[in-house]
Every structure is written in structure tokens, then in C-alpha cells.
Design goal:
Elements lengths: L3 E5 L5 H4 L7 E4 L7 E4 L15 E4 L9 H6 L4 E2 L6 H16 L2 H9 L5 H11 L12 E5 L3 H12 L3 E5 L5 H6 L5 E2 L3 H7 L2 E4 L13 H4 L6 E5 L8 H9 L3 E6 L12 E3 L8 H21 L19 E8 L4 H11 L4 E9 L2 E8 L5 H8 L4 E7 L2
Parallel strand pairs: 1-2, 1-3, 3-4, 4-5, 6-7, 6-9, 7-8, 9-10, 10-11, 11-12
Antiparallel strand pairs: 13-15, 13-16, 14-15
Helix pairs in contact: 3-6, 12-13
Length: 391
């Protein structure tokens, strides 16, 4: 039986690690030449990765700490756990709504700073409370940019609180659309949601296409004294433009899970220490999800919830399986099958799926493939990786 070595770059919840059979997996932070790496927040960009590395698993959603592009070029899938922390983030966004609407942070700081006691304290409290008059949420409009697992939960919860909710996501999946409350209005543009919202929350990944998504031009569309919340990533909002918007009262409060020097002491910013997924439940859910998918890939070659490879699952028809990552270009599958035919190997079943520039092929065979044939497949121009899966 083939065994696998897993390096952990952060503490991974035991609920996930316990799903790796001890007779088949060695797991820990000091593993040398690992077959796979499990990570949470540790930056992998400067690591020297072993040549035998097969996969990387992120016990969370974001993968900015992982060199996804270079791993893709080596035929190495990166798995994550989308949606595993959705409830945790949703609850924090709702907390942000209440904190901003009722001025709870400034009110708390006011009371903490009072030196009075007894009746004098009561008088000071009553005298000061009018400075913190807030607003109720029902009837107010929340804009939700990004309707993935988290965005949909936030939108539905806010609608349940009596808010008007406008969502925008041009790439919303059928699954998420079905989950979205019928009462949530879907906008045709970011500009539309900005013009019509009292509160705005962002739930999109950071990429070249979303960097500075909310820029100076778009911030000028906001209603005066709007509340802006960022529980997504730094870089989504143009920080310099946001500073101007705060100082001009275009934005009354900025609530973020990503403190920066510009905002950590700003009187209108509420900065939290990246608490979005910091619940026991979210850490456990993320670990279980990514470990299950990583194990399925290592043992069977199946790919589920990968950020850089197409979802590809083939029910196992034979014990002899070859898994091949390659460029998405014409004639690739034909060349792979030709190499297998040269060894007179009969194909019992196969699947090929593509995603952007990457394709992935799984082939079940009636007999084991030789090292010579594997080497022949690897030599084909455009092949990124090729391996046999354990019987």
C-alpha cells in the first residue's frame, strides 16, 4: 500500500487531520519531501518546494499566500475550502452592520473613558448618549457585491432582518442563484448598487480583475454617510480614495477585517484583526473539507474544489489509473492515448475536463502502465504532470 507524506505549515484542526488514516499518512510540520502540503495563512511564496510535490491544500478560502500560478505550471492542483467559513463570516458581517448602525464602538469607548462613579456616572451616561444616536436596519438598503457562498448568506440574513438587499455578481452560479432569497434584488452593475445603498459589503476574491474594484470614481456614487464594509481582502478598495471619501463624509464608517496603517486609528474606521474565519466551527469545517478533497486526489486522482484545475471525478472502474495534467490544446488526449496504445493497454474508462488553459485527464486501464510509458507521456509537449494512482 502506498503511503503519503503531508507537511503542515500551520496548525490544522484535528477534526481534519484525523481523517487521514495513520497507516497510510505521515503528517506533521517537520515532514521532509512531502507529497502534499496543508496550509492556512503561512506564506508559501518564498518556499523551496520539493520536486515530488503533488498537491497543496488550503484550509480556508483565499489563496493569496500560495504561488498558484507557478504550481499550475508544474501540474500541481491547489485545493481550498470555499463556503466552509461562510457562516462565520456572515455572522461577523452582521455584527459589523449593528456596530456601524448603532455607533457601538464610539459609545463603548466613551463609557470606558468616564471617571465618574455612582450618580455622577449615571448623569454622564445620560448626558453623553445622545451623541451616539444610530439607525435601525429595517428599511435600509444593503448592497452585496459578490454572491458566492458568503455573499448569498449575508444577503439572505440581511433580508431576514427587514433590510432591502441589492446584490451584484455577473458570474453567479446556478447553485448560488437557487440559494438566494427571492426578495433579494439583483443589480446589473456595481454603479447601480452604489447609488442605491445605505450599507455596502464586498465578498469577492482579490485578483487582477478585482484590485481597486471600488475606486475613487465609484466611491463618488455613494450616498452621503454610507457605511462600507470589507470582509473580503485588502486591495479590493482603493485606500487613498477611501480616505478622501471618509474625510468628505461620503462614507460615514468603514468596517474592515484587514487593518492598515492608514485606517487602524482613523476615527471613522473600525478595524478588526482578520476574524472572519476565526471560529472553532469554521476551522474544523475548512480542515475537514480540504483534507477530504486532498485525500481523494492523492489516492484516486479525483479533483474537487481546486482553484486552478477543472473539477474532474471518475468513479473507479479498475485498480490501474493514470492521472495527467496538461495544457488545454488540440491533440493532447490523442497523444496520451497513442502512448498507452503502444503498450497495448486497454482503456476501461476515462474523462477529460478543461478550465481556462489547463486540462486534466484520468484514464482507467485493464493493466498497469509501465514507467517507460509514463516517461513517454511526460515527454509530450504540453504535459505538466503524469502519475499512477495507488491501486
Amino acid at each position: 500500500m502506498q503511503t503519503f507524506k503531508i507537511m503542515t505549515l500551520n496548525d490544522i484542526a484535528a477534526e481534519g487531520l484525523n481523517r487521514l488514516p495513520k497507516d497510510r499518512y505521515q503528517c506533521g510540520p517537520d515532514i521532509e519531501s512531502p507529497d502534499a502540503i496543508l496550509v492556512r495563512s503561512h506564506s508559501m511564496h518564498e518556499l523551496n518546494l520539493p520536486a515530488n510535490l503533488l498537491a497543496v491544500g488550503r484550509a480556508g478560502a483565499g489563496v493569496n499566500n500560495i504561488p498558484v500560478a507557478s504550481l499550475t505550471e508544474q501540474g500541481i492542483p491547489v485545493f481550498n475550502a470555499p463556503g466552509a467559513n461562510a457562516n462565520a463570516v456572515k455572522e461577523l458581517v452582521l455584527a459589523g452592520l449593528f456596530i456601524a448602525a448603532r455607533n457601538l464602538v464610539t459609545a463603548y469607548e466613551y463609557v470606558r473613558a468616564l471617571d465618574e462613579e455612582g450618580e455622577a456616572l449615571e448623569l454622564a451616561v445620560e448626558a453623553g448618549k445622545k451623541r451616539f444616536v444610530g439607525s435601525e436596519l429595517p428599511g435600509r438598503t444593503l448592497a452585496v457585491i459578490g454572491l458566492g457562498a458568503i455573499g448569498v448568506e449575508v444577503a439572505n440574513a440581511a433580508y431576514g432582518l427587514g433590510m432591502k438587499v441589492i446584490g451584484f455578481d455577473p458570474k453567479i452560479t446556478v447553485e448560488r442563484a437557487w440559494q438566494l432569497s427571492a426578495g433579494v434584488q439583483q443589480a446589473n452593475s456595481i454603479e447601480e448598487v452604489l447609488r442605491n445603498s445605505d450599507f455596502m459589503t464586498i465578498h469577492v476574491p482579490l485578483s487582477d480583475g478585482t484590485r481597486n474594484l471600488i475606486d475613487a470614481k465609484r466611491l463618488k456614487l455613494l450616498k452621503p454617510n454610507s457605511v462600507l464594509m470589507n470582509f473580503s481582502r485588502n486591495g479590493i478598495i482603493d485606500e487613498q480614495a477611501l480616505l478622501v471619501a471618509l474625510n468628505e463624509d461620503r462614507v460615514s464608517t468603514y468596517v474592515t477585517d484587514f487593518p492598515t496603517a492608514e485606517f487602524k486609528r482613523h476615527p471613522r474606521a473600525i478595524c478588526l484583526p482578520h476574524l472572519g474565519a476565526s471560529t472553532l466551527e469554521a476551522e474544523q469545517n475548512s480542515a475537514v473539507m480540504v483534507v477530504d478533497n486532498l485525500r481523494q486526489y492523492l489516492e484516486h486522482g479525483d479533483i474537487k474544489r481546486s482553484v486552478n484545475f477543472p473539477e474532474t471525478v471518475l468513479p473507479r472502474a479498475r485498480p490501474h489509473r493514470v492521472a495527467i495534467a496538461h495544457a488545454n490544446m488540440p491533440n493532447m488526449v490523442a497523444q496520451i492515448l497513442a502512448a498507452l496504445a503502444e503498450e497495448e493497454l486497454n482503456i476501461a474508462d476515462m474523462v477529460n475536463h478543461s478550465r481556462d488553459t489547463i486540462s486534466y485527464t484520468i484514464v482507467d486501464l485493464d493493466a498497469p502502465v509501465s514507467e517507460a510509458t509514463l516517461a513517454r507521456i511526460r515527454s509530450i509537449d504540453g504535459i505538466l504532470s503524469a502519475r499512477t494512482c495507488p491501486e
